[in-house]
Predict the structure.
Amino acid sequence: MPKRSLPLSKVYALIEPGPVVLLTTAAAGQSNVMAMSWHTMLEFEPPLIGCVVSNRNHSYGLLKKSRECVINIPTVDIADKVVGCGNTTGARTDKFGKFGLTPCPAAVVQAPLIEECYANLECRVVDTSLVSKYMLFVMEVVKAWVDPKAKYPRTIHHLRYGSFMVAGETIKLRSKMR
Ligand SMILES: Cc1cc2nc3c(=O)[nH]c(=O)nc-3n(C[C@H](O)[C@H](O)[C@H](O)COP(=O)(O)O)c2cc1C
C-alpha cells in the first residue's frame, strides 16, 4: 500500500494515547484545572504515570510547588468543558466556575476531585528528574476513585488539532491472553 510522508510535527497524533484527562492542582490557596493528553502508564503497582506538563501552563507552577495533583478522567458528555480547560489559563480565570465543573475534596491530596469525571486518581509527584529536560513528571497514584455505574466509559482521545476519537466498541479476547 503506497503511503505518504508525514511531517514530523504530526507524529504525536498517531501515538497520542489518551484518554484526555483533566489535571487538577492546588497550592497557596488556589486550585486549577487543565486538559492533558501526554501521559503514559509506567508501572502497575504502585501505579506510576508519566505526565508532560508544559512550563508555559499555570498548572506547572502549582504542580512544582505542591508536588500533588488529581488526574480526573472525563467522558464525551463534558468534552466541550475539557476543551475549554485546555484553551484557557487559570492564571486569571476560575475555570471550575467558568466551565461548570464541581471541585470536591480529595482524601489524600490538596488538589480537588472533579465530580463530573467518572474516575479520579489522587497523585503525588515521586520523580522530577526528567522535568528540566522534558517537563515530564512521574506521579504515583495514592488513591483512586471510580463511578461503579460507568461500565464502558466513553472517554475522549485526542487525534489531531481539535479532533477527538470517542471510545466505543469493546471486544473481549481474554482466552487469547497469557
Ligand atoms: C486536548 C488537549 C490536550 C492537552 N494536553 C496537554 C498536555 O499533555 N500537556 C500540557 O502541558 N498541555 C496540554 N494541553 C494544553 C493545556 O491544557 C493548556 O495550555 C491550558 O490552557 C493550561 O491551563 P493552565 O494555564 O490553567 O495550567 C492540552 C490541551 C488540549 C485541548
In short: The CA atoms of residues 75 and 116 lie 9 Å apart. The chain is about 15% helix and 35% strand. The pocket of flavin mononucleotide is lined by residues 20, 32, 34-38, 52-54, 57-59, 83, 86-91, 158 (CB under 6 Å). The chain has a mean pLDDT of 95.
